[in-house]
Amino acid sequence: MTMITRGLSVSVTVPDQDAALAFYRDVLGCEVVVDAEAWPGARYVQVAPPGSDVGIVLLPPDSEIPRAVRLGTASAQAAHDRLRATDATLHNDEVLHLEGSPSMFAFTDPWGNELVLMEE
């Protein structure tokens, strides 16, 4: 079974989300994909180059939203179960089901890279 279906986004750390949004949108020409409050106090801003399926998530240094590579998967639960038996470090005991968001979970690969798998 193929666990990963596609790349969704990568995160970058920015000191000011509004200034970063203006730069990525107005200077680089990216389109705003999402600008919303993921949960109280956690702003999620994602931009993407025109026509790109892969976004750039603009996160402040103190964000509780993981700075990670976000990847798509057909089944977050099946992927979570499969990764439980590997050298990956799961950040959640269970798949997260946040209102208005796809099922997802965060983990660290054996080399310390942060990843998030999101159900498509």
UniProtKB/TrEMBL annotation:
Residues 6-120 form the VOC domain. SUPFAM superfamilies: Glyoxalase/Bleomycin resistance protein/Dihydroxybiphenyl dioxygenase (SSF54593). It comes from Phycicoccus sonneratiae. It comes from the Bacteria. This is VOC family protein. InterPro entries: Glyas_Bleomycin-R_OHBP_Dase (IPR029068), Glyas_Fos-R_dOase_dom (IPR004360), VOC_core (IPR037523).
